[in-house]
């Protein structure tokens, strides 16, 4: 299974890192254990997205910036228009950070 | 709607992580109560992020219904209060000039860890008038320090403005406007984005790409396994397509 540290930047990941920071500061856990928890989060997140999510989405917009570096695509899209299954939404700007999701890359890394 | 599954998926992730790190906690000799506290704090933070409707988030609703200090013996609560008072003593001498909040306020906080509460107290602005424990001289000192800090900050900002004007002048150079080289306009834009990364609550999609293609100025991306954070809400997708015009 492909797992990335990328998702630590999500809301649930930030909540986790904040919690761990506080608990390290309070000497309740040591950084080594926190690293293990973060690694487990990467695994659990990958599993959750692959097994528990069946939604499709689409979005359009004006591409302001694109970048491809170290197998990571970054797009900044202006005025994106989102289509979810029964909902649509607009925003002024969104940043897309995408890691390689191909099986080929996975085997290369391993 | 992909927002409604967020609650379920996040709950699953938290439970799954907690379940899988149990052995790490025990092998490192960390008590089970710390693990429970870890889960409680994490869940509280996720709920407070309000990225989805978390009303049915936790099975243990009691955790949130009653302040956690009730679960601790009276002595422990007293310790927390004492430590807070100790913190005040330090506080008045320190360089921080924000007046501390009352200890009674902090004991009703959900998080039971003394250190955590202390670290938070420095961030809570006092809204209930001046602290009676301070003498007039102490208050005067705090105000003087605050004014000095404000002045210093203003001067720093002035300095920044001057250096920025220099930068903008460079951008008006015609040569730079029309090429894509390093330090050109395109690069500047990128840099600005990075600078804002930590400060802006920007809308963000974290995902994996399967295919990114471009025909002239039209881009098409096939994405999968993504988390979208837009307008303060999270959405999840298994597959998504992005169509952009550059």
TrEMBL record, chain A:
Protein's job: TFIIA is a component of the transcription machinery of RNA polymerase II and plays an important role in transcriptional activation. TFIIA in a complex with TBP mediates transcriptional activity.
Subcellular location: Nucleus
Protein family membership: Belongs to the TFIIA subunit 2 family.
Main location, first listed in the record: nucleus
GO molecular function, one term: TBP-class protein binding
Sorted UniProt keywords: Nucleus, Transcription, Transcription regulation
Domain Transcription initiation factor IIA gamma subunit N-terminal: 4-49
GO biological process, one term: positive regulation of transcription initiation by RNA polymerase II
Name used for this protein in its record: Transcription initiation factor IIA subunit 2
Domain Transcription initiation factor IIA gamma subunit C-terminal, chain residue ranges per copy: 60-101
Single GO cellular component term: transcription factor TFIIA complex
Transcription listed as a keyword: yes
Automatic annotation (TrEMBL), chain B:
SUPFAM superfamilies found in the cross-reference section: Transcription factor IIA (TFIIA), alpha-helical domain, Transcription factor IIA (TFIIA), beta-barrel domain
Cellular component annotations (GO), alphabetically ordered: transcription factor TFIIA complex
Broad class of where this protein is predominantly found: nucleus
Gene3D superfamilies, A to Z: 1.10.287.100, Transcription factor IIA (TFIIA), beta-barrel domain (2.30.18.10)
GO term, biological process aspect, one: transcription initiation at RNA polymerase II promoter
Annotated segments matching region Disordered: 114-133, 154-202
Biased composition (Basic and acidic residues): 154-163
Source organism superkingdom: Eukaryota
Positions of transmembrane segments: none
Biased composition (Polar residues): 114-129
Keywords: Nucleus, Transcription
Ranges annotated as biased composition (Acidic residues): 166-178, 185-200
Database matches in InterPro entries: TFIIA_asu/bsu, TFIIA_b-brl
Cell compartment(s), UniProt: Nucleus
Family per record: Belongs to the TFIIA subunit 1 family.
PANTHER family, sorted: TRANSCRIPTION INITIATION FACTOR IIA SUBUNIT 1 (PTHR12694:SF8)
Protein's name according to its UniProt entry: Transcription factor IIA, alpha/beta subunit
Organism this protein belongs to: Piromyces finnis
């Amino acid at each position: 299974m492909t797992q990335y540290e990328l998702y630590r930047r999500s809301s649930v990941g930030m909540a986790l890192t904040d919690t761990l920071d506080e608990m390290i500061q309070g000497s309740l856990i040591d950084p080594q254990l926190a690293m293990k928890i973060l690694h487990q989060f990467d695994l659990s997140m990958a599993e959750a997205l692959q097994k528990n999510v069946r939604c499709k989405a689409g979005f359009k917009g004006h591409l302001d910036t694109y970048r491809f570096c170290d197998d990571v695509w970054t797009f900044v899209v202006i005025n994106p228009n989102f289509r979810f299954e029964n909902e649509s939404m607009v925003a002024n700007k969104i940043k897309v950070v995408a890691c390689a999701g191909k099986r080929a890359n996975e085997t290369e890394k391993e | 709607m992909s927002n409604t599954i967020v609650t379920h998926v996040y709950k699953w992730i938290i439970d799954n992580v907690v379940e899988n790190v149990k052995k790490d906690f025990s092998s490192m000799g960390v008590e089970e109560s710390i693990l429970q506290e870890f889960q409680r704090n994490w869940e509280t933070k996720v709920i407070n992020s309000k990225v989805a409707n978390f009303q049915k988030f936790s099975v243990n609703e009691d955790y949130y219904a009653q302040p956690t200090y009730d679960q601790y013996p009276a002595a422990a609560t007293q310790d927390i209060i004492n430590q807070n008072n100790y913190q005040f003593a330090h506080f008045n001498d320190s360089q921080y000039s924000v007046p501390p909040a009352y200890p009674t306020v902090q004991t009703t906080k959900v998080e039971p860890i003394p250190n955590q509460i202390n670290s938070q107290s420095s961030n809570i602005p006092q809204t209930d008038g001046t602290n009676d424990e301070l003498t007039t001289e102490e208050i005067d000192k705090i105000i003087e320090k605050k004014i000095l800090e404000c002045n210093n900050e203003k001067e720093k900002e002035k300095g920044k403005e001057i250096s920025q004007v220099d930068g903008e002048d460079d951008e008006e150079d015609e040569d730079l406007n029309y090429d894509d080289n390093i330090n050109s306009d395109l690069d500047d834009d990128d840099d600005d984005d990075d600078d804002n990364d930590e400060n802006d609550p920007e809308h963000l999609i974290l995902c994996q790409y399967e295919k990114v293609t471009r025909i002239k100025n039209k881009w098409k991306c096939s994405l999968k396994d993504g988390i979208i954070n837009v307008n303060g809400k999270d959405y999840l997708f298994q597959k998504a397509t992005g169509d952009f015009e550059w």
